[in-house]
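seq as requested:
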Amino acid sequence: MPVEGVPVSGAVVDLEGERVTGLRSSGPASIDLGDVAVVPGLVNAHTHLDLSDFAIPVAPGKSFADWIAAVIRHRTQAGSDPARAVFDGIKEIESTATTLLGDISSASDSRAALESSSLDAVVYREVIGVTRERAEASWRGFELWIKDAALHRRIVSGISPHAPYSTQAWLFGKAETNPACQIHIAETREEIDFIEKREGPIADLLQRLGFTDTSSLANSPSAIVKRFPNAIMVHANHLAPQDFKSNRPAIVHCPATHAHFGRRPFPAKQWLDAGFRLALGTDSRASSANLNLGAHLASLMCGPDALDPATVLRCATLNGARALGLQADHGSIRPGKLANLAVVPIGTREDLEAVIGGLAHPVSVLWRGNWRKSKGLANPA
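struct tokens:
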């Protein structure tokens, strides 16, 4: 299932080193995979590796602000080890069908750990600050961090202004010129109420944290959207395609997080029909029971706005690669791209729904031409 092209029965994928060199409809092969589907490695376009130390997700609470407060307490508690959390998150994802991810780096820089892993990644350094002092310190930290970008050969470095309710407007301006950018936006109604009216649970939380002056924060989501035509917009639950005018940024939906908070069905089809690139992510273990993107896909094929399996696969592969700006190497099976492949058992069924279901537990995963997971190969070379 090359994604860019129709499924090929009895296909042979030719590899040389870490690249795909050909895709044939028949002929000899050195490895017979048996009755399986071969798909591109999945792209987890949005996660927080440094929050991988949650054994179970944080309960939603009475408000989204309650959940935020619980995450803050977790990050500041004695014994918290974000670097270990990054390591654990990487190990978990390496056991799945994901081969490329977008990580938000906040409490611990994940680039070195990812560089030595069997994953490709874009790492977005989070910048944040309700107060001028905190925002300036965050920006200085980013400037030091980005200077080390050249040290990481495989890992792309970007920026993530956290959200309009937590980041001074001028700091968003500083981030505008960075080609790799992710922003959490319009995740909850509480966020919209705070941005537009400075009221509600988020306003109360900021007061409790001692942030009494919020005048330097954004006043509308649309002001952010207009400034970032090429950024990745994460969640966007309370925005609609018409809010973007002529912009068509990538939208990242996190199905498990969406379900965890009991939110109304996400209008995935509406975004796709309007011409947006819809990518998928796992978010963090603070709101998701696991980081296995393949286990989160089946829900997109349910409900009144259900997507067909081929579209779900495209969202989980090529759309994610395009969102991260790495579609030249990732997201589909075609000559010249990296040999990042997932192998799903389907027996004699050529059923796309079975393929989506099987991505939760791939039998084999190939990363850059090497078997990262090779269980179930009929005759591995």
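The two ends are 22 Å apart (CA to CA).
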